[in-house]
Amino acid sequence: MAHGFTTDRGWLVDGRGRPTLLRGINLSGSSKVPVAPPGATHLGVPLEGWADVSFVGRPAPLDEIDDHLERIAGWGLNCLRLLTTWEAIEHAGPGEYDEAYLDYYAEVVRRAARHGLWVFVDPHHDVWSRWTGGDGAPFWCFDLVGLAPEHFVEAGAVGLDAQDWSENYQRVPVATMWTLFYGGDTFCPELAGVQQELQDRYIGAVAAVAERIAHLDNVLGYDTLNEPGNGYIGRSARNLATARRFFDQDGPAPWSPLEHLAAGDGVTVRREDGEVLNPNGRSIWRHGCPWQRACGSS
Prior knowledge:
Elements: E1 6-8, E2 11-13, E3 19-20, E4 24-27, H1 62-74, E5 79-84, H2 86-90, H3 99-114, E6 118-123, H4 141-145, H5 172-187, H6 194-213, E7 219-222, H7 237-240, H8 257-264, E8 269-270, E9 276-277, H9 290-297
Parallel strand pairs: 4-5, 5-6, 6-7
Antiparallel strand pairs: 1-2, 2-3, 8-9
Helix pairs in contact: 1-3, 3-6, 5-6
């Protein structure tokens, strides 16, 4: 490789054969949300105009980026884990790459080299998407599987501003998308083909970044995908019936994946303590729940 690094027995090895420890930093959390319209999480997640966003300027505008890179290098750091997201690259629709963003990202990588900084490309995911309490995937992925994001909050299917954000992995939209991404053809034959579509689109988006920066010698490599979930894959019946709490220890007990599956299909779920999930019986599916049909046919 042009940068001279190789790997040997778990070590990153420089051009002189020396095991090397890089001193790196993430750049940066702001890259998870768009610049325009402003994507700060406290402003909410829009259900309209999802195609017309821009991440150009994340992590910083080009007229400011050198100041940040100079400061990072001055702290003695020499490597950036430079975030990008699938949404930033392909928000407008399948196969529609944001060329302005790709040019911007490449320019940030090029300027990093001027400051002596190596770059490790990080296609970032948290949970699944901005519409499910995290970031990463573009909105149009939900259309592929028949989910209705406009009903997620009302049905209690996502926690957009929850302290225990990782609990979203147990809820239907996120668990569904990860199951279909990794094993949809096996576990949900009704949606056969979605698995390949999701994987191909994601890989294509990362490849578009790779093609744009292939000539830059300070690119060390690529993360595969940050913090993926396993969805329903490998989950036992007992596990699906058990509620799990990750961070937030206050408030009522969380709902189990099975309770969320019922609520997602438009069922109002009630507990003896008075807690209610999906009180209005709103389904998050446009054509009914494919998981219910899959279980009924098995």
